[in-house]
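User: I'm preparing a small set of examples for a lab meeting where we compare how different chains pack in three dimensions. I only have the primary sequence for this one, and I'd like the structure in token form so I can line it up with the others. Please keep the answer compact; I'll paste it straight into my notes.
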Amino acid sequence: MNEIPVLPSLALSETNAPGESHVVRLTVGAAFVTAAMWAAGLIHTADLWTAADTLWRPVLAILSIMLSTAAAQRMGILDVLAARLAPRGGQSPAHVFRSVFILGALTAAILNNDAAILLLTPLIVGLIARCYPRRPDLIVPFAFAVFAAAGVAPLSTSNPMNLIMAEHTGIGFNEYAMRMGPIALAGWFVAYGVMRFLFRHQLMDADVRVDSVAAQAPSLAPYARSFLVVMVLSLACYPAISYFGGPVWVVAAGVAALGTVLCRNHGVATPGELRAMVSWPIMAFLYCIFAIVLGLLNAGVVDRLAGLYALAGDGDARLLLIASVSAVGSALMNNHPIAVMNALVLGDMGDGTHLPVVAALIGGDLGPRLLPMGSLAGLLWFDWLRRLGVRVPVRQFVLVGAAVTVPSLIVSLGVLLLARG
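Assistant: Understood. Below is the structure token output for the 421-residue chain.
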């Protein structure tokens, strides 16, 4: 765990994309299952068209966010933000831990959870290794801070599957933000508090040797600062365009187009280089998963899930059941198929308040923190740490994940139930 390289500009590199092998394997497996189900007659040709018609809008938004993320990374925006987290004299590791958690939460909210993992994991690991050269024990706590900060997505654009589910069930950007914003905030406080307690011994001491690191913090070029402002302002455009019934992907596509033009005009990256930084297999994976779940719908599996939810009636017990099944199912099966099945079930069983959908989203966002295979973000996180020479045993991941997830889930559902009343 001591052999951490000096922080390079690694994130999303075209030739060394972390986690790409995981994504490709998952995509190939999903494509094989899709083909087998089509050959067996469980997936019909009409289902393939239905999947494409349902997904093109959220997928376009996801692609646009990925391009914007790539542009921001090539402009050095994330490098600057991470470098400015370097502790100054007298600041303890606990102070930096809080700052890293906040940066992780904001990055996941503004971009998305996968982008936050891809960008911040190498940046923060390298930063901590350089700032605390005699404290390799701090690397794992800070890595967990990056991973756990994503939590419940406060915006529909903060998580690819949440965006797909919101689109399918008819939840607009503004309604989603009003429902999930307070829930996400409560979950952040709980997750931070639990991790601060779990790693309290590592974060107690101050071994700050960062003068040279702080002096090396880069500055943003004017065009990069302009793009950062545009990215922040786009968050204000999302609710405005949603209020007037416009599609969210238009704003995301506009920001991506601006980032592409700025990178090209200033010699930062060509459009082709930015496209190469987008994980295209993820798009194919999302499509195959949706098609597979349509096949499961044809086979009656989705109906069984609907029957399970119906057993709890229409009260608070139903919301708790939906959230619990979504959390456990996401941890065991990955959150993508569970989210799609929930979208199909709850789209037909909705009670007009969208609260069942919100409960499913809460469980689907928090459940994957229980097991590494629960989400693509978890796989990306593990792969980055492996590349950086950091070892996190699965047992430690499960213990920390359970300690953070269970109280976060309870508090998040408590906020949801209060909102119901």
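A couple of notes for your slides: Residues 28-420 form one domain. The chain has one domain: 28-420.

User: Perfect, thanks.
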